[in-house]
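Ticket opened by: R.M.
Priority: normal
Category: complex prediction / small molecule

The reporter submitted a protein together with zinc ion and asked that the result be attached to this ticket for the collaborator who will pick it up next week. Submitted input follows.
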Amino acid sequence: MDKKRYSKPLSLRSVQVTDDFWKKEMELVRKEVIPYQWNALNDQVEGAAPSFCMRNFKIAGKQNQERKAQGESYQEASYTFRGFEALPENPEHLEDKFYGFVFQDSDFYKWIEAVGYSLTQHPDPELEKTADEAIDIVCAAQQEDGYLDTYYILNGKDKIFSNLKDHHEMYCLGHLVEGAVAYYEATGKDKLLNAAKRYADYVKERFGKEEGKSKGYPGHEIAEMALVRLYETTGEEKYLNLAKFFVDQRGTKPYYFDKEQPEEAAKDPDGIRYEYYQAHMPVRQQEEAVGHAVRAVYLYSGMADVARLTGDEELYHACEKLWKNMTEKKMYLTGGIGGTHIGESFSFNYDLPNDTAYAETCASIGLIFMARRMLEIKPDSRYADAMELALYNTVLSGMSLDGKSFFYVNPLEVNPEACHKDERKFHVKPVRQKWFGCACCPPNLARLLSSVSSYAYTETEDTLFVHLYMGSKIQKRIGEQEAEIIITSGFPANGHVEIQVKGNDQPFTLALRIPQWGRQYKLEGAEDGAIQVKDGYLYVKKVWKEGETLKLEFPMEVQVLQADNRVRENIGKVAVVRGPVVYCLEEADNGKNLHLLTMDCSKPCTEVREEIAKEPIIAILAQGSREKLTQTDGSLYMPVKQAEKEPAELHFIPYYVWANRGENEMTVWVRRD
Ligand code: FUB
Ligand code: ZN
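Result attached by the on-call engineer:
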């Protein structure tokens, strides 16, 4: 690890995203998703699962005030903790108490984070006013001592931090910090940041390696990377130390979680117990991605952050191994991770079922977080390739084209009847949902998409790394000069990229990622530069003359892929991709019974421009056949015979636009002829 060479993400303020594709996504988040989600957080979306998020804050704030007025400071728990407080039978008669999941607060924190990012790109006084008022509501719930989690504030503070394993107080802290930093960076307003610091300070007082402090760590990771961010924002080392403590402490023996629930210790042997939480062994010894997928990638992101800031080689190598295992043995073609709904978890190596897949939207978002952090330490296109895959496929598929409904689970094959009738597939929804009781994914999407450029670019003093191609205007300081870098990109429609540098006469380097699918690229306009290719990046160092244009052409061609044959699900099947975009067959274009279609891989595919719900897309037509339905006397089984087939044209659309035309079948993998 060479600390001097680390790159850091460009500040959102210094990048304006300009291209049709990503600008449109960001505008959708700004105009539709953020207002829609605000209504959802306030339980004002008809027909959607209630959130109770803002309601919980308001009640906590009210009780806080009342308690202060009566001179009481503490509330005893009179309550059995369940982790989820369901809606009463008659929703008209809600009590003044906490409803929803233990981590309901985090939905607001993700929303305010998205608002912060959006404001950096597009000032909006009205939205800022709504956000400021919401922050007042949240801060009113904060306790005198800094504690802030409405679940315990409303249920009894004497039980706080008694179930770190499952009760998400640190998770809420993490999201509070992330949201507060984003809002502060966007507006300069520090009310929420101060609230986040006070809560972090409170946690710091109680947890740490110092004698007398608790040796616990978060059951759901995120505080680790959030505390690093708080350190980087405030410069206060105590936050980095706390993050490092949580990372170091995790999975050490005696297991902290055994203390909380001694009965657990009797159940599973060491090494398996707490895999779900990635707390089964010290993190530096972990080599296989296991357990709850979102927790895992949030942890790995925090580990990478701590490794970067402390120069911890061993920790960094653990991240590399985990990344390798995850992306080479446990990742779907779509960049989805977490193959099983049981525990929303990773399954064993190569177990990647298509129709029962979990592939939670949040998990792919976390994969992107980790990838960017690994890129900061060492640019290697493998990280950016997976980041791109997750972004264009699982993440974009997580939201409908109108920004008003969402997927939590992202399967690669759907038969709607099975989703309705087969309990093993009840987690797979054939259409996106307006909201969820557990609504982690929608606001996570909002915060990621509104900050997408911070994954596209990182910089050192003399180099701009382009990890993802998107049209952008970038301000970058090079030596004493402020330069403007203008990037145009045709992604994902075509692979044409142009780059111009203005206002700079110093030599500097553009490090351009060569996607794994685009190795046959063409480069023009860098003839007088020093060119080097390393770890999947094309480094072009030169003095960039005004008006000079560097052109890159990546072959955005249709590719037909097969899977490693250890993925049993995909044996004899192929999938179609074009550049970073994975394609699928949908019933709307191909009729029912997609399982009867086969593709002839020897015939060329053609591309056609189309629209789905007004979204321009490139569809792909392939040749193949359709097996005719079996004609029998009613027997389910019969002597083997040649299947009767008729020629068929297979009509593929990008995976991210599926399920925008009502409920219907879908498949990514198709049998080959
Ligand atoms: O537990 C908080 C969030 O809810 C997780 O990250 C998601 O997987 C969902 O379980
Ligand atoms: Zn989620």
